[in-house]
Amino acid sequence: MSPGYFCWTLAASPALCYRYHELSTPLSKHGEQMSKPDLLQMGALPEWDEGPLAQSFTLHRLYEAADKAAFLAEIGPRIRGIATRGDLGAGADIIAACPALEVISIYGVGFDAVNLDACHARGVKVANTPDVLTDDCADLALGMWLALSRGIVAAEHHARSGNWAKGGFPLTHKASGKRAGILGAGRIGQAVGRRLAGFDMEIAYSARTARAELPWRFIADARELAEWADVLFVTLAATAETRHIVNAQVLEALGRDGLLINISRAQNIDEDALIAALEAGSLRGAALDVFEGEPQLDPRFTTLSNALLQPHHASGTFETRRAMGQLMRDNLTAHFAGKPLLTPVI
Ligand code: 8YV
Fold first, then answer.
1. Mean per-residue pLDDT of the chain
2. Which of 110, 133, 181, 267 fits a disulfide with 315 by CB distance 3.0 to 4.6 angstroms?
3. Atom of ligand 1 nearest to the CA of 313
4. pLDDT digits over 128-176, tens only?
């Protein structure tokens, strides 16, 4: 058991925990205590990350502070690094409150919640955790598509509740052998496409430019891609340009037999237009892992039987979250050892 892990188990006793952190401060080769860089932690992390982080850094947990502004005013000037999550990022206000900030390490691939302009302007480095979560995100996208197509969640309830004895489950729609549009052909979009090929799907993708290495049809325009597709997978990184890229027109083009799967970011979709389409039945169904204002979600979603709702957990497996945490910490370690980031965003 690592010392840090032991400390985490004692987290109910902060005073003891603090003392323990001090004792675990590394010693220089001359036996002097080396000071640990001050790190602002934006949100909770699994215990297997908290321990090692606390061993190498003096942690300041913003999410535990009752008065965040006062907390930042006090510790901000000392902060040299930020450990954050894809969903939490670091806004311009946080970056401004940390004048000595050198690096932001994201536990997640998405960097849309980090204000990159502010980082650029200040020369703050940013790292994320690509690749290690690609498989899980693609797996969940396929699972959501199959569950939505075949009504797996309602069918499970049908079997469990005893309704089966009163009658069979209503027929659903075939999933395989149809046309899949992939909006965003990055790592995750490509992994979705590779999996879909195993379901005999005809595949097309949209990206900024055609990618010669991909064996699939290229349809640049989101509306045209939706028009062509039976199911639209949204896998693109969220930027200012992609905000509401899936709008009312795109949903209309996808059509009343169409399905929408979103494992990217909520802001890529106009949620009001999506809810209207689902309510009107002008779209057959949507499976969503991400929501505007999550973890709160628009209550209208919860009444829609043609929406499959997931709690932003595409990367949420033990294996992947461990790998993400390791990479997030490795990026911080590399930076404070004077080495380049392993997976830099900027
Ligand atoms: C995580 C994510 O759920 O990778 C991302 O960008 O949003 C997700 O993998 C998140 O970072 C963990 O809170």
1. 92
2. 133
3. 3
4. 999 999 999 999 999 999 999 999 999 999 999 999 999 999 999 999 9
Q: How far is the CA of 110 from the centre of ligand 1 (A)?
A: 7
Q: How far is the CA of 182 from the centre of ligand 1 (A)?
A: 20
Q: What would the pLDDT profile of 66-115 be if each residue is shown by its tens digit? A: 999 999 999 999 999 999 999 999 999 999 999 999 999 999 999 999 99
Residue of 114, 128, 289, 312 with the most ligand 1 atoms within 8 Å of its CB, for mutation: 312
| Residue 139 shares a structural domain with residue 276 | yes
Q: Give me the catalytic one of 265, 321, 329, 335.
A: 265
70 shares its domain with 199 = no
> For the chain, how many residues are written?
346
Residue 190 pLDDT level (bands cut at 50, 70, 90):
very high
What is the pTM assigned to this prediction? 0.90
Ligand 1 atom 10, closest CA? 86
CA dihedral 194, 198, 201, 204 (to 10 degrees): 10
Same domain? 179 vs 292? yes
Q: Ligand 1 site: residues with CB under 6 angstroms? A: 85-87, 107-110, 133, 312, 315
Number of domains in the chain: 2
Q: Do 58 and 112 fall within a single domain? A: yes
CA-to-CA distance for 21 and 26, rounded, in angstroms?
10
Q: How far is the CA of 108 from the centre of ligand 1 (A)?
A: 4
Flag whether 343 is in a domain. Answer: no
Q: Within a domain: residue 86?
A: yes
Domain containing 180 equals 134-309
Claim to verify: residue 160 and residue 290 sit in the same structural domain? yes
- Please tell me whether residues 35 and 116 are part of one structural domain: yes
312 part of the active site: yes
For 275, phi and psi rounded to 5 degrees?
-60, -40
Closest CA to 105 of 76, 82, 80, 79: 82
- Distance of alpha carbon 225 from alpha carbon 8, whole angstroms: 49
CATH of the domain at 116: 3.40.50.720
Active site residue 265: yes
Same domain, 181 and 239: yes
CA of 137 to the centre of ligand 1 (A): 10
Cβ partners under 8 Å of residue 276, min gap 6: 248
